[in-house]
Amino acid sequence: MHLPSMNVLIQVIVVGLLTGGVYALLATGLTLIFGVMRVINIAHGAFLIFSAYISYWMFTAFGVDPFLSIFVSVPILFFFGIIFQRHVLSKVAGDPGLGVLLTFALALSLEGLMGSLWESTGRSVRTSYTSKVLPLKIPEIKMALPFDKVFELSEINLRLPYVRIAGLVAAVIALTGLFLILKYSNVGRAIRATIQNRNAAQLVGVNVERIQAITFGFGLATVAGGGALFSLIWTFNSGSHEEWISKMLSVIVLGGMGSLPGAFIAALIMGVVEAVSAVVMTSYISPIVFYLILFITLIFRPQGLMGVRIRKG
Amino acid sequence: MALQFLRRWWKIIALVLLLIFPWLFRAPYYHVLGFNILLYALMATSWNIMGGYTGYKSLGHAAFFGFGAYLAAIAANQLGWNPLISAPVLAIVVAIVAMVLGWVMLRTSGSAFVIATIAMLLIFRLTALNLRGITKGAPGLSQPLPPWTPEFSRMPFFYYALVWLIIALWVSAYIRRSRFGLGLVAIRDDEGKAEMVGVNTTLYKVLAFGVSAYFVGLGGGIWSYHASHISPIFAFDIIIGVDMILMTMIGGLGTLWGPVLGAFLLVPTAQYLLFKFGASSFYLVINGLLMILVILFLPKGILPSIEEWLEGRKAPRAAHQGAMSMAEMHGLTDSSLSSDKEGK
Question: Considering only alpha carbons, which residue of chain A is nearest residue B127?
Answer without folding.
Answer: A284
